[in-house]
Amino acid sequence: MARSMGPVRLKKTSPVTIVLGTALCIFILYFLIGPSTPDFSASRKATAASHPLSPPTSPFRKSTGSRKPKPPPVSHYNLNNVTVTANPLENRENILILTPMARFYQGYWDNLLRLSYPHELITLGFILPKTTEGNTATTALQKQIARTQKSGQEKDRFKSIIILRQDFDPPIQSQDESERHKMKNQKIRRAGMAKARNSLLFSTLGPATSWVLWVDADVVETPPTLIQDLARHNQPVITPNCYQRYWNPETKEMDERAYDFNNWQDSPTAQDLAKQMDPDDILLEGYGEMATYRTLMAYLYKEDGLLHEEIPLDGVGGATLLVKADVHRDGAMFPPFSFYHLIETEGFAKMAKRLGWQPIGLPNYKVYHYNE
């Protein structure tokens, strides 16, 4: 025989449970439709651009509303108000760090994060090739950017970050060190590098930029005070010595060796070689087939020398290079063609000198290149 059920009694919900449930629902709704990035600090809000077509080196905060965006503003800039001094930290001068990147190295990004210069005054600019390797590097770079800019600490977030993709094919496909440094590949390879540098520079140099710091993507170790240390010299173009750490099989311990041979002082031999060349031929450094007998800064390092000793240079490399923005605004770029038989960064040094800006080197101040 079926047993009849009595009336079902519902347990009364307590007011505390209702309040907690309501709060949880509000939190979930805010998480889903709220802004995707953390709010800027007051100092970052003050310099944020109001429109995506504002100067590229200013951070832009996307609108979360459905209103029609405002038309691009007409902005006026007095470049005489942009200071470029030996104390950029005290004067809160804006730094533009530019990096052509074919491969992503975690050590490079970690080193950027360790820079002690206020990140809210630093804009990062990258240009990457449209290759399989370039796509991989772009994905890895964007992952680190998202981690830093969205979930990282406020002090680690940069003012703005710009990523460009090259609109031309790379001259050589392989980025292996042995292939990159073959003498037969140098002219076409460095012409491509010059085009990439110029595209990156012309697309990112803003009216508020005081200094441009070029850092190669395979430079993985610099002093945290790199920007302040180089700027204190108040030189228009200045570069440290680039070395490389490696395992020495003879001593069975870690050692160092010179890496960047594009920082040099010219020689009569090199000048005589240039006179015998066709207009489109270029001089290359570091190759036995073309002995120039230039004075290479890489070999001028002294363990007991003054850290901030300066020497004049006629050619510079791009591993780490601090340039006053006015030098680039004057027209100094990276020639992708033979310029006085020089190309890319060495051609840039020649062009800067022709414009009246003397490049300077610091033989005893070292930065370190990744060892493949």
Automatic annotation (TrEMBL):
Gene3D superfamilies, per database record: Spore Coat Polysaccharide Biosynthesis Protein SpsA, Chain A (3.90.550.10)
GO MF, one example: alpha-1,6-mannosyltransferase activity
Subcellular location as annotated: Golgi apparatus membrane
Record-annotated membrane-spanning stretches: 12-33
Biological processes, Gene Ontology terms: cell wall mannoprotein biosynthetic process; protein N-linked glycosylation
Domain of life according to the entry: Eukaryota
Topology in the lipid bilayer: Single-pass type II membrane protein
UniProt main location, coarse: Golgi
Region annotation Disordered: where it falls in the sequence: 47-79
Keywords per UniProt: Golgi apparatus, Membrane, Signal-anchor, Transmembrane, Transmembrane helix
One GO cellular component term noted in the UniProt record for this chain: mannan polymerase complex
Family: Belongs to the ANP1/MMN9/VAN1 family.
Annotated PANTHER family: MANNAN POLYMERASE COMPLEXES SUBUNIT MNN9 (PTHR43083:SF6), MANNAN POLYMERASE II (PTHR43083)
Protein name: Glycosyltransferase family 62 protein
Species name: Trichocladium antarcticum
